[in-house]
Specification:
By secondary structure, the protein is α+β, with helices and mostly antiparallel strands. Helix content is 49%, strand content 21%. The strands form two sheets. A seven-stranded mixed sheet has the order 1-4-5-6-9-8-7, with helices on both faces. It has a two-stranded antiparallel sheet with strand order 2-3.
């Protein structure tokens, strides 16, 4: 920036009660927005998604008391709504070699279209969750270098710790011959590396263990039991009244 332009910018900011320091303090957010809107590379595109997805997951986990009966599709829909704040094209059930659960597409600064998808499962054991892996690698993954990364989202609504369940999942992948790397300190995130069709192009999956188990408080449990008893009493009274009318 030239001295004249810098001076002019500074003057405009000062006239409106701001300083160059205030503007520079916003540069990190501005650069993140620019990186999302016009990524310089496919890796930049995926890096932005990983960061935004972490924040969306954190928000979902923070409201886990509201997810006692939320379905797989329900969790994924909530993440989709949050991601729509950052990306122009976010969709569930997109036809991408099949109906993948979550799909993001963005055009980079170089004009190339970058693609990423996620397959989701509500934890039901390693065999059940293996279905997500088979769908991701067998149906949706491509060898395109601008579409060779994706995610597996595992919603954990079990009393057993999410870290323990993810260890089981990681072991299953390793036992099946898949390479696992970049495991987070808490074990809830890791990558698995694959070659499509056995010896074909490389493909990377990022696995997310999403903790949505919530232990109701004693007060909440007591209210639930009280409500159930009230509903049961009302049904019994209605049945008795119905029988009394019939017997007349």
């Amino acid at each position: 920036m030239s001295d004249a332009l810098s001076t002019a910018c500074g003057q405009i900011l000062n006239e409106n009660g701001y300083s160059m320091t205030d503007m520079l303090g916003m540069m990190d957010d501005t650069l993140r927005d620019l990186k999302r809107a016009k990524p310089l590379s496919y890796d930049d595109f995926v890096e932005s998604i990983n960061l935004d997805l972490e924040n969306c997951i954190s928000s979902t986990e923070g409201g886990k008391q509201h997810h006692h009966s939320t379905s797989e599709d329900g969790f994924t829909h909530e993440l989709k709504i949050q991601l729509e704040k950052y990306y122009a094209f976010v969709a569930p059930e997109v036809e991408h070699g099949g109906h993948c659960d979550l799909y993001i597409q963005q055009k980079g600064k170089n004009g190339l279209v970058y693609r990423w998808f996620a397959e989701a499962k509500l934890w039901g054991g390693t065999s059940y969750c293996s279905g997500a892996l088979k769908q991701a690698l067998g149906s949706y993954a491509t060898g395109n270098e601008n579409a060779n990364k994706a995610a597996v989202l595992l919603y954990m609504r079990k009393k057993e710790s999410s870290t323990s369940l993810m260890k089981k999942w990681q072991k299953q992948l390793e036992d099946d011959g898949h390479s696992v790397t970049d495991t987070s300190n808490n074990g809830l995130r890791f990558n698995s590396n694959h070659n499509l069709q056995g010896d074909g192009p490389e493909f990377t999956l990022r696995h997310y263990g999403i903790s949505v188990y919530h232990q109701p408080s004693r007060d909440a449990e007591a209210k639930k039991i009280k409500k159930m008893r009230k509903e049961m009493r009302a049904k019994i009274e209605a049945t008795i009244k119905a029988k009394a009318r019939t017997s007349k």
